[in-house]
Specification:
The complex is a heterodimer of chains A (424) and B (974).
Chain A lengths: L1 H18 L3 H20 L8 H6 L1 H8 L9 H8 L27 E12 L4 E12 L14 E10 L4 E9 L5 E4 L4 E4 L2 E5 L7 E7 L3 E9 L4 E2 L5 E3 L7 E18 L2 E16 L8 E10 L4 E9 L16 E9 L5 E4 L5 E11 L4 E12 L4 E7 L5 E2 L5 E10 L3 E7 L3
Antiparallel strand pairs in A: 1-2, 1-13, 2-3, 3-4, 5-6, 6-7, 7-8, 8-9, 9-12, 10-12, 11-12, 12-13, 14-15, 14-23, 15-16, 16-17, 18-19, 19-20, 20-22, 21-22, 22-23
Chain B lengths: L1 H28 L10 E4 L2 H8 L21 H9 L5 E15 L8 E2 L4 E8 L1 H6 L5 H10 L14 E6 L1 H7 L3 E5 L2 H4 L4 H27 L4 H20 L2 H10 L3 H7 L5 E8 L7 E5 H4 L13 E4 L5 H10 L5 E4 L8 H35 L1 H9 L4 H34 L1 H16 L5 H29 L14 H21 L3 H33 L5 H16 L1 H35 L4 E4 L13 E17 L11 H4 L6 E2 L4 E8 L3 H6 L4 E2 L3 H6 L4 E4 H7 L6 E9 L22 E5 L7 E6 L5 H8 E9 L12 H12 L3 E4 H44 L1 H9 L4 H43 L9 H25 L13
Parallel strand pairs in B: 4-8, 5-7, 14-19, 16-18
Antiparallel strand pairs in B: 1-9, 1-10, 2-3, 2-4, 2-6, 2-9, 5-8, 6-7, 11-20, 11-21, 12-13, 12-14, 12-17, 12-20, 15-18, 16-19
Helix pairs in contact in B: 1-14, 1-16, 1-17, 1-29, 6-17, 8-9, 8-10, 14-18, 14-22, 14-29, 16-17, 16-18, 19-20, 20-21, 20-22, 20-31, 21-31, 22-29, 22-31, 22-32, 29-32, 31-32
The chains are: A mainly beta (424), B alpha+beta (974).
């Protein structure tokens, strides 16, 4: 070994000696390095669409994510604080009122009108259909007066799953331009040529018309055969135990839908059940630190179940997670709705939502481990069901990517519904 | 070490320029948001654009004043259309704006102007609509992605005075800064001088169109004279229509806006808006794209500055256009801003050239490094032998040498790369522009990653060197005494002769077998390889020959020659590198020169009219002043479905290969699209038509409509020869959309005969083309539809050239009348424009050439200086004999120059041969056109001189340091 080392030591002096004349080059290198670095730092990060948005609320969220229960502030106290970020806050003292609240709430940061359908055609082929309109508002500090648009931002998602095809389209539009809005009286939710039009101030009955990527055309007529259901406490829905994350939330789980789908130039009739959720909040926008597993199920005895489980987003839910600490679960709640529309809010200890099996979902950017088979038990209702996906890979690769898909229900109850999984 | 740095630097430079150039070419010719697919410009103001453009001639000028808030397209119209399902429409608004570079565009808005303001057009688009449009293809996707930087909440930026804008890399580099600002109050300054502001915007647009024109010319410069210029002009003029969009409105706005003091009173800094630039090649040049929300800020509202129109991301069908029109209360104009422009074959051939240069550079670099390694090992041979004699196993020595090599690679490759980057960015502003796009591309495409590039080059360099250096290293490390390591003996004369003949025969045989572009390129490599080996063989022989001739009475001269002979066998690799660089240099120069000469003479002949008018108008709308003869260029497009060849074709064709296939009776060709152009049948037309080959009496037959002329491209790519008859189908006018298809018969007065009468050169054109006499076109039925927008103008009663002594006033008047209807170019202007573009394109190639030569020269010099160290003993002897220091140095210099001269001598024939291969094989096969090889002695002499000058310069540097002292201690025998 020694000789080799000697040889190396002989090499190094020659090396340095040879480098010396090339100080000029080092200067060049330096210049290039500086250039490169500046280029790197200046380069526009392909900032995702709502980067600004989440930034605007980052102080709020930092507190939100810190599970600091020792700070025992009242909800209202926090509201005063968060009102610095200029949005209206969700408040128990301001109850949800229908039909007034079917419309848009631009003073809140985030809002969505969410329709999901479990449909089948005349040949009993099953379909899962989603139509969603999101509204985002930018924080007042970040707002810039523009005569073109308002600080509102609209986003529409349309997704259709057949057994072997998936169609998804995302639409974006600025508020105030006129091509995206939700109006009450009569209720009308529009983004471009996607339209949900009612004849009166209630969203139902209504017609729903939209297309997906110019390959699918959907026209449905929607009727409700049951009451609206205010989730949580009369529409005040907690997402965490301490209500740091909360929203106004009501549903219409009793929708009958029928109409036509024109898919790849083949038109056919469909009919089935629909579920409508309308939710608005200024306390959810930053959910980077967590996600939710959300279920809307039509059970075959006519009852409905809305259940969700907030989870820490970091590591994917582990199927083998211990049942004692319930994995990375943060908060779980559910609404059990009887066939006649009676609702019972279930507390944390009354329901268990546990992942049974995971699915690998590969998208262009990432490979994700998503728990898509779940066990939901509500001992008090004698309900023990397995929720499994209608098909694999029901992932919406949108600006905000998430799992949204039709599910089948087996166990003590049978049925179908939708499952939304975020934070994976 | 130095060699590796140098080699890497050179290689990276060439590669980057290459990459930069190709990206730049692509960027400037494709994927702009304005020509991603067909963009339809639905614009009320379009009328006014043209009116502004065309000063005061057209009748619709009356409408200009009325373009206001009432009848311009509004947000409501936009929403209406989008809700009706026209989601491919994207609203936009555009204004000219003076921008200044901002330094330290920090949050407190302290901006300092660092450069003179430049006028760019600020384009506001509904970026959200653009972003969310269903990804119909890669293009839409790339648009969306590149525009993603514009996306922020509400489409606006968080800070009130900051907006995010996208800019074309070339424009950005032209501006030379990352942050721009513009002051809205500037508009106020224009107040009161409507005319002035109008003029200003007009000027801006003029400049703009000029730029666009240049851009297109890059791709088109040498394509078939009249026709291609037509294409480029239509691109340019339609692009010019865009920036002028709000020009008139701008004039109005200037009056409507409050004076600057109003704005500044709100806050001292609020008058400036800071634009944070992000780079995107989807953005047109000289434009900054912002979101509409940012566009309509502060005092700019829809009322003061209406929307310019809607862009369509997909072509609109006729029905859709009707539908749109029906839904809008006001009349709208639809403009196909740009159908996919051809990139042209010049960038292609240019790219090919660059790649060839890159490959050459790689070879040269490898030779250089190997040579350096060889020399290095040689100088350290005594040490190694001592080690071996001390009992160190050869394995250790080899490993150590390889580790050393790796270290060199690790250290020098980054330096080389950095130097390469630096050199590349220094070389040309165009390149540096693309550079910024390269750097930005790092974030979009992970392919262009600086670190991986570096790692890759370290790896590749080490691997290739390792493999090649292993042999000498092994050989050295096993050596136990110097006697075993001998310089290769020069070959005997007979074997030299045999080798030479074999080499040339090999080349000759292979050359005959070339049939594809790949073959041709491989042949270039083979040519270099063979010539290289021949040089290695011949150089010592030549040197020895000269040595014999040199009279022994002049000892120093004799020493020079003898020493050269000795050197020549030891610097083989360096000589090879130099030889390749020189050969390539000569080859490229000869090729470019031939190309230039051919293009120039051809253009001179082809552009027969004293002036050409490029216009957007329909042929029937053009007002031609009296006394001006105009010849329109009509253009159709057809599909070549079949061709029949005459049996026993006895017409001679200049191209031998196309005759080989003429024995077939009938050949059904793949349906290639052929462009059909009209050609005037007057005398000037005849004089202007340059043909490679033609049947006897071709012009008379052409005049009478008995046949056609085809270009080389058509002839070569479809094996068409003289006398063949072509069958064309699906003929349609190139300029109109498909919905208005007309029957073939309506195009022509009588069905024309498509018998090939002649083949004409069509340099640079990428399309296959054929010429039909203008007289056979039915101008009444298709005049407007087929009009390509080009009109050959001659003043005076069809007398050419226009030397009729007309009253200058009338002449100017005529010119003015024409100039208002489009862009009027004189023949000279067109020629200069084309040749300028041509020269500019090849500046880059020249740069590469010189880089390669420089690198080879430096390597050569380095190896020579190392060798001369080993030669020190004989120099000492010379000094001892009383030769002066200067004389010794001079003698050394003489040696090197002599060696260079010898190499150059050998390089000349091979260089010319290389040029021949480039023109008649590579170009012929890749682009289906050839041009005559013009061997200009001046060009060769100048290339050789330049090369020698470079070498001398480089060599003189190390020579200065050499100290030929009387010192005999150096030769310590082992």
């Amino acid at each position: 070994m020694k000789p080799t080392l000697n040889l190396l030591s002989e090499i190094f002096p020659t090396l340095t000696k040879r480098i010396e004349p090339f100080k000029f080059f080092f200067q060049v290198v330096l210049a290039v390095c500086v250039l490169t670095c500046s280029a790197c730092s200046d380069a526009p990060a392909p900032s995702r669409f709502f980067g600004e948005l989440s930034k605007s609320n980052s102080e709020d969220s930092a507190e939100d994510s810190a599970e600091d229960s020792s700070e025992n502030k009242s909800v209202d106290g926090r509201d005063n604080e968060s009102s610095t970020s200029s949005f209206q806050s969700v408040n128990k003292t301001t109850p949800l009122v229908l039909p007034k609240d079917h419309g848009s709430h631009p003073d809140y940061q985030l809002e969505w009108w969410y329709l999901t359908f479990v449909l089948e055609d005349d040949e009993k082929n099953e379909y899962g259909l989603q139509f969603t309109l999101f509204r985002f508002a930018s924080a007042k500090e970040a707002q810039v007066a523009s005569s073109w648009s308002t600080p509102q931002q609209w986003m529409g998602h349309a997704s259709l799953h057949s057994k072997d095809e998936h169609f998804f389209e995302e639409r974006l539009a600025a508020g105030g331009v006129g091509n995206a809005f939700v109006k009450s009286a009569p209720f009308n939710a529009v983004i471009d040529n996607w339209s949900w039009q009612s004849k009166n101030d209630s969203p139902f009955p209504a017609t729903l018309q939209f297309s997906i990527n110019n390959t699918v055309d959907i026209a449905l007529s929607l009727t409700a055969n049951g009451p609206f259901v205010k989730q949580g406490d009369k529409g005040y829905s907690k997402k965490t135990q301490d209500a740091r994350l909360r929203s106004y939330y009501y549903s219409q789980p009793f929708i009958n839908a029928s109409g036509t789908i024109d898919m790849n130039n083949t038109a056919f009739n469909v009919k089935g059940l629909g579920w409508y959720d309308h939710e608005w909040t200024s306390h959810l926008a930053n959910s980077n630190a967590m996600g939710w597993d959300w279920f809307s199920l039509h059970l075959d005895d006519g009852s409905k179940l809305m259940a969700f489980r907030m989870h820490a987003a970091d590591n994917g839910t582990n199927a083998g997670a211990s049942t004692i600490n319930r994995g990375n679960e943060i908060y779980t709640t559910a609404s059990y709705i009887t066939a006649s529309g009676g609702k019972e809010t279930l507390a944390l200890h009354e329901i268990s939502i546990m992942p049974l099996d995971n699915e690998q979902i590969t998208t262009v950017n990432a490979e994700r481990d998503v728990p898509t088979t779940w066990q939901i038990t509500i001992p008090g209702k004698g309900l023990d069901i397995t929720v499994s996906p209608f098909k694999s890979g029901q992932w919406n690769s949108s600006v905000l990517a998430y799992y949204e898909g039709r599910v089948d229900v087996t166990g003590t109850h049978k049925g179908a519904g939708f499952m939304e999984l975020t934070g994976y | 070490m130095f060699a590796i740095i140098l080699a890497n630097a050179g290689l990276i430079t060439v590669l980057l320029i290459n990459e930069g150039a190709s990206q730049g070419e692509l960027a400037s010719s494709q994927s702009s948001i304005f020509n991603g697919g067909t963009i339809v410009f639905v614009d009320k103001a379009a009328m006014s654009n043209r009116a502004v453009d065309e000063a005061a001639s057209a009748p619709q000028i009356g409408k200009v004043g009325e373009v206001g808030k009432d009848d311009s397209l509004s947000k409501a119209d936009y929403a209406k259309l989008r809700m009706a399902g026209f989601t491919q429409l994207v609203a936009f608004s555009q204004r000219e704006q003076r921008f200044s570079c901002a330094e330290g565009g920090n949050s407190d808005n302290q901006v300092e102007t660092s450069q003179a303001a430049s006028e760019l057009s600020l384009l506001g688009i509904d970026n959200q609509a653009l972003f969310s449009y269903p990804v119909a293809g890669d293009k839409a996707g790339s648009i969306s992605n590149s525009m993603a930087g514009l996306m922020s909440a509400n489409g606006g930026s968080a800070e009130p005075h900051h907006v995010v804008g996208a800019i074309h890399p070339a424009t950005k580099s032209k501006l030379g800064c990352d942050v721009l600002f513009f002051s809205s109050s500037q508009k106020g300054n224009k107040k009161g001088s409507q005319k002035g502001s109008q003029k200003l915007s007009q000027k801006g647009s003029q400049k703009n169109s000029q730029l666009v024109r240049d851009d297109k010319q890059d791709g088109k410069v040498s394509s078939s004279g009249v026709s291609s210029l037509g294409a480029s002009s239509s691109g340019a003029s339609s692009a010019a229509a865009l920036p002028t969009g709000p020009a008139e409105a701008g004039a109005k706005t200037a009056g409507a806006l409050p004076p600057s003091s109003d704005i500044t009173s709100t806050s001292s800094s609020s008058s400036a808006t800071i634009v944070q630039l992000s780079v995107s090649t989807a953005v047109p040049q000289d434009t900054i794209v912002v979101s509409l929300a940012d566009f309509y800020r502060r005092n700019i509202t829809e009322a003061t500055w209406p929307l310019s129109g809607f862009l369509s991301l997909l072509p609109l069908s006729q029905n859709e256009k009707l539908d749109i029109q029906q839904r809008l209360s006001q009349t709208v104009a639809f403009e196909d801003v740009s159908t996919q422009q051809d990139t042209g074959s010049l960038p292609d051939s240019f790219k090919l050239n660059l790649w060839a240069m890159g490959a050459l550079m790689a070879v040269v670099a490898l030779f250089i490094v190997l040579n350096a390694l060889n020399l290095m090992y040689r100088t350290r041979l005594p040490n190694i032998i001592r080690m071996r004699q001390l009992g160190i196993s050869s394995r250790y020595v080899t490993t150590a040498l390889l580790i050393e090599l790796l270290l060199y690679c690790v250290f020098s490759v980054p330096i080389g790369c950095a130097a390469g980057f630096y050199a590349a960015s220094m070389l040309s502003p165009i390149i540096s522009g693309t550079f910024s796009s390269l750097f930005n591309a790092v974030f979009i495409t992970p392919d262009v990653n600086l670190i991986s590039t570096l790692a890759l080059s370290v790896f590749v360099t080490f691997l290739s060197l390792g493999i090649f250096a292993l042999i000498p290293a092994k050989q050295l490390s096993t050596a136990l005494s110097t006697s075993k390591v001998k310089a290769a003996q020069p070959m005997r004369k007979r074997s030299v002769l045999v080798w030479t003949i074999a080499g040339i025969a090999l080349l000759a045989i292979t050359q005959a077998l070339i049939s594809t572009t790949l073959h041709a390129l491989l042949f270039v490599a083979l040519l270099l390889l063979v010539s290289c080996s021949l040089v290695i063989i011949w150089l010592p022989i030549l040197a020895n020959g000269v040595m014999k001739v040199t009279p022994p009475s002049k000892p120093v001269l004799h020493f020079i020659v003898a020493s050269t002979a000795q050197l020549s066998s030891r610097t083989r690799l360096a000589v090879c590198a130099f030889f390749i660089a020189l050969t390539a240099n000569i080859g490229m120069n000869v090729m470019t020169d031939s190309f230039r000469a051919a293009t120039e003479s051809w253009l001179t002949q082809r552009l027969y009219a004293p002036a050409y008018l490029y216009t957007d108008k329909a042929l029937s709308e053009l007002v031609i002043p009296e006394g001006v003869a105009s010849t329109p260029l009509l253009r159709l497009q057809g599909k070549l479905v079949a061709q029949s060849n005459t049996i026993g074709n006895d017409f001679s064709s200049s191209d031998s290969s196309s005759n080989d296939f003429s024995s077939r009776d009938f050949k059904s060709a793949d349906a290639t699209t052929v462009s059909i152009s009209s050609y005037p049948t007057h005398d000037n037309g005849r004089n202007a038509l340059v043909v490679d080959s033609s049947v006897p009496n071709a012009w008379a037959k052409f005049e009478s409509g008995e046949g056609i002329y085809i270009n080389q491209q058509l002839a070569f790519s479809n094996d068409v020869s003289l006398g063949d008859t072509l069958f064309l189908e699906e003929m349609k006018a190139a300029n109109i959309d498909e919905s208005s298809k007309k029957h073939n018969n309506s195009f022509f007065n009588k069905p024309p005969s498509f018998t090939v009468l002649g083949i004409y050169p069509d340099y640079g054109n990428i399309k296959t083309q054929l010429l039909l006499p203008l007289s056979s076109f039915n101008r009444d039925t298709i005049g407007d539809a087929a009009f390509s927008g080009v009109l050959a103008i001659s003043y005076g009663q069809s007398t050419f050239p226009a030397n009729t002594p007309e009253a200058p006033q009338t002449f100017e008047q005529k010119e003015a009348t024409l100039a208002t209807q489009g862009n009027l170019y004189s023949r000279e202007e067109l020629l200069t424009l084309s040749m300028d573009t041509f020269d500019r394109t090849f500046v880059l190639t020249d740069g590469l050439n010189i880089t390669t030569l420089l690198v080879a020269g430096i390597a050569f010099a380095v190896s020579l200086s190392i060798l001369s160290l080993s030669n020190a003993s004989s120099l000492t002897v010379l000094r001892a004999l009383g030769v002066s220091k200067a004389a010794v140095k001079l003698s050394l210099l003489g040696q090197y120059i002599f060696l260079c001269l010898l190499t150059a001598l050998l390089a000349v024939p091979f260089g010319v041969y290389l040029a021949y291969v480039f023109i008649f094989k590579v170009n012929r096969l890749a682009f289906s056109w050839v041009y005559p090889l013009a061997v200009d002695v001046g060009v060769i002499v100048s290339s050789v001189t330049v090369s020698l000058a470079i070498i001398c310069l480089v060599i003189a540097l190390p020579l200065g340091r050499l100290k030929p002292k009387v010192d005999l201690r150096q030769d310590a025998p082992l």
